[in-house]
Amino acid sequence: MSEAVINQQPAAQRPEQSATPVVPKDAAAVILLRDDSDARDPVVFWARRSERMAFMPGFYAFPGGQRDDADAQVEVDDAADRETATMIACAARELFEELGVLAARGADSLTKGQLASVLDDLTSARMTFAELLAHYGLHLDARDFQFAGRWVTPPFSPRRFDTLFFVVKCPRKQEPRVLTPEFDTGEWTGAREAYARWRRAELMAAPPVVHALRTLAAGLADDLYERFLSVPQAHRRPLRAIEFLPGFVCFPVRTPTKPPATTTNCYVVGTRDFLVVDPGSPYEDEQAALAEFVKELISQGRCLREIVLTHQHPDHVGGVEHLRATLGGDVKVAAHRLTAEALRGGVRVERFIEDGDTIELDGDPRLRLRAMHTPGHTRGHLSFYEERAGALLTGDNIVGFGSVLIDPEEGSVRDYLSTLERYRQLPRLVALFGGHGPATGSPFAKIDEYVAHRLKRERDILAAVRAGAATPSEIVARAYADVPTKMRALAERAVLAHLLKLEEDGLVARAAGGRFAARSPGGLDAK
Ligand SMILES: [Zn+2]
To answer: How remote is the CA of residue 396 from the centroid of ligand 1, in Å?
Structure first.
């Protein structure tokens, strides 16, 4: 659905609560090709984003980054206009900073030692990139930076980029190496092999990277750039359906969810037979966009098996009945029995899914999803695990950014921690697909981060109670003074969830008036 159509919505139908998506930041990225590449199977440099990165950790990516103010000062020969020159300068600078490769004319006359000192001058900010190029008699030429598309991160992400991609041939005497903590590792790879690895679900990559690999894998023929630019997303049209792994398509829909999220991830899972998981939008335009996508798949001969729900929250079920009605009414909805009970009178659930049930989806590859009953966020919460791909749909137990709300009585911290532990025990994990935000390519680091976050909260809350704070509101005031006023009520619910667990653990006791006190091993503290 285009921006224009969304904007035609009457104001009254627009979500009042949800935050507006963030404005994309200008960025540039480099598809670096090895100079001696075989034109039929070019060799490209890619790197794995660090597990510690907040944005798409564990994803394979190309070097690149945000535009710097000083990039506008760099002269670029033969550039079509100032804007293009600036973005080429950004690409060249990022390539140099991240991989040590300086794609400037004249750089071949520098010794390795000189190149290292240029890089040091740049990274230590002794000189700007423009000053350095001038100082060493180097210059950038637009003909060394072939435009290969401009992609915008879809609105579902808390960090968005408007990225120009350039194909650059690595200068003969230079060898790229990872110099930035943003990447764990980097390597030259044949484009065909890299694309095949993604197809085999061995790793995660963002859509423009997958598109570049697929394009390069067909060889460096004359129509290379036509092929790069042959998809609408390469012209800044945000992608609606994002295939992070083969058979796992994320279709984010706008929902009245909790900030900072503005969308809920609906997933279309399967390579021929498919499921629609969590069609959550209550908004007509978004429901129509999803229905159109699903109908298109059906028209290609694919088969919608059923609609599946991870849990009952409105931002996950808001579009179920619309989708069912649009498709003729006989599509079945499946969920956990407890979710069905919570939805009684609203959404009709025809089939119950229990822990350990499997859903087989024919196709190439065939997918086999194992349902896991994973309470914590809600009592009837389901997750779905596909072992071959190492993919886990986590619903709202783990999301792409921020933390998860545990709101009693539906939510339980104890159950939540057990659920995270079950996730950690899964035999193979490549990707986590959460209910909001981008997928995660470093599953175990993410699970550990969530566990550590919960345990830290628990310690903070217990310390606050021991220091005399007796109610959720007093605890929030003491331990989470930085929580914005608007979020206070939610923060208090989250604190209560922890207090209930601490009570079960025998570390705090509830007294009259909903007040809590710390317990020493011998009984109630005097406080
Ligand atoms: Zn939820």
So the answer is: 5
Q: What is the pTM of this model?
A: 0.88
Classify residue 325 by its DSSP letter. Answer: H
Alpha-helix runs per DSSP H in 144-283: 191-199, 207-217, 224-228
- Determine the pLDDT at residue 6: 26
* CA 413 to ligand 1 centroid distance, Å: 14
pLDDT at residue number 19: 60
Task: Give me the pLDDT at residue 74, please.
Answer: 97
Q: Using the mean position of ligand 1's atoms as its centre, give its distance from the Cα of residue 198 in Å.
A: 30
pLDDT at residue 27, rounded to an integer: 98
Residues 422 and 397: their CA atoms lie apart, in Å, by 12
Cβ-count burial of 229 within 10 angstroms (0-12 exposed, 13-18 middle, 19+ buried)? middle
For residue 506, what pLDDT is reported? 95
Q: How far apart are CA 407 and CA 376, in angstroms?
A: 9
Secondary structure of 440-494 as H, E, C letters: ECCHHHHHHHHHHHHHHHHHHHHHHHHCCCCCHHHHHHHHCCCCCHHHHHHHHHH
CA of 74 to the centre of ligand 1 (A): 48
Q: Which residues contact 411 (CB under 8 A, 6 or more apart)?
A: 376, 377, 378, 405, 497
The enclosing H or E element of 116 equals helix 112-123
From the CA of 412, how far away is ligand 1's center (Å)? 13
Tokens representing residue 19 in the block: 């935050």
Please tell me the predicted confidence (pLDDT) of residue 260.
Answer: 75
CA-nearest of 355, 452, 369, 361 to 403 is 452
CA 438 – CA 432 distance, rounded (Å): 9
How many angstroms is it from 389 CA to the middle of ligand 1?
A: 25
Residue whose structure tokens are 């025809």: 350
Would you state the structure tokens that stand for residue 155, as one six-digit string?
Answer: 């609105």
Cα 309 from Cα 173, distance rounded (Å): 55
Cα separation, 165 vs 93, whole angstroms: 14
Per-residue pLDDT at 297: 97
State residue 521's pLDDT score. 59
Show the low-confidence residues of the chain (pLDDT under 70).
1-19, 521-527
State the Cα–Cα distance between residues 391 and 269, nearest whole angstrom.
11
DSSP tag of 23: P
Rg of the chain on CA atoms, in Å: 26
What pLDDT is stored for residue 8 in this prediction?
28
